[in-house]
Amino acid sequence: MPKGPTDDERLEALRERAEAIARVTESASREDLSEALTIMHELRVHQIELEMQNEELRHMQGELEKVKERYFDLYEHAPSAYLTINDRGLILDAN
After folding, report:
1. pLDDT of 63 above 90
2. For residues 18 and 11, what is the distance between their CA atoms, to the nearest angstrom?
3. What is the 3-state secondary structure of 27-81?
């Protein structure tokens, strides 16, 4: 009667299969981790870009407020008629 593998042989074969599966899983996990790190980096770059754009928008809003105040001072407080014309002679603004 032929003898089957011993318990130790079965355990060793099982260990080898488990290690092979673990290597494949670890390899996939490393790829997933690498992809996740790349995505996190891209998100951080986009976040920094948005912060810079927001800062620029705040700056432009301040500049717009200054222009608005200047316009108000020129047109609303002028003691006489005041107007702005373009290069073709069309009136752009008047008080």
Report:
1. yes
2. 10
3. HHHHHHHHHHHHHHHHHHHHHHHHHHHHHHHHHHHHHHHHHHHHHHHHHHCCCCC
Q: Read off the DSSP letter of residue 80.
A: S
As given in the structure block, the two tokens for residue 40 are 């996190």
CA–CA–CA angle 14, 19, 23 (5° rounding): 150
Calpha distance 24→30 (Å, rounded): 10
End-to-end CA distance of the chain: 114
Residue 3: DSSP 8-state: -
From the list 67, 95, 71, 73, the residue with the least C-alpha distance to 83 is 95
Go through the chain and tell me how many residues it has: 95
Instruction: Please tell me the pTM assigned to this model.
Output: 0.49
- State the pLDDT at residue 84: 84
The single-letter code of the amino acid at 89 is: G
- pLDDT, the chain, mean: 85
